[in-house]
Amino acid sequence: MCLFCNVIEKKTPATVVYEDEHAIAFRDIRPMAPTHVLVVPRKHISGIRDLSADDVTTIGQVFLVARHVAKLEGLEAHGYRLVVNDGDAAGQTVHHIHVHVLGGRNFAWPPG
Ligand code: AMP
Ligand code: ZN
User: Fold this and answer.
1) How do residues 61-107 score in pLDDT, each as one tens digit?
2) Cis-peptide into 110, omega within 30 deg
3) What radius of gyration, in Å, describes the C-alpha atoms of the chain?
4) Residues whose Cβ atom is located within 5 A of ion ligand 2
5) pTM above 0.90, yes or no
6) Ligand nearest 8 Cα, by number?
7) Is 36 noted as a catalytic residue in this protein?
């Protein structure tokens, strides 16, 4: 079964910072910034490439949760970065769509 589905079902432990009926947000196990939270919809969608029109509301809710997490983590004043990796070239390792919320330091552009 999918790792993030297991986190959603509380079969795999995670440090949850927020959850509601649409999505769950928990700390990344290998943080790349002082704040690194993953926002994951409860619905299993493999990645951006698998989105359909039916998922528009789900993805909108994920972004609202990402904003809420940024606010909870005190990131709004200085700014933060949202990242969605899709496929091998981007380094996607978990095939359940998720938004990385990264903050607490400055980020380079273009990204590596
Ligand atoms: P991605 O590479 O975009 O697919 O992101 C997957 C992320 O999940 C990586 O940043 C991993 O560090 C993170 N990750 C993997 N397993 C866990 C876990 N059990 N709990 C929290 N984060 C995890
Ligand atoms: Zn899943």
Assistant:
1) 999 999 999 999 999 999 999 999 999 999 999 999 999 999 999 99
2) yes
3) 13
4) 2, 4-5, 44, 96
5) yes
6) 2
7) no
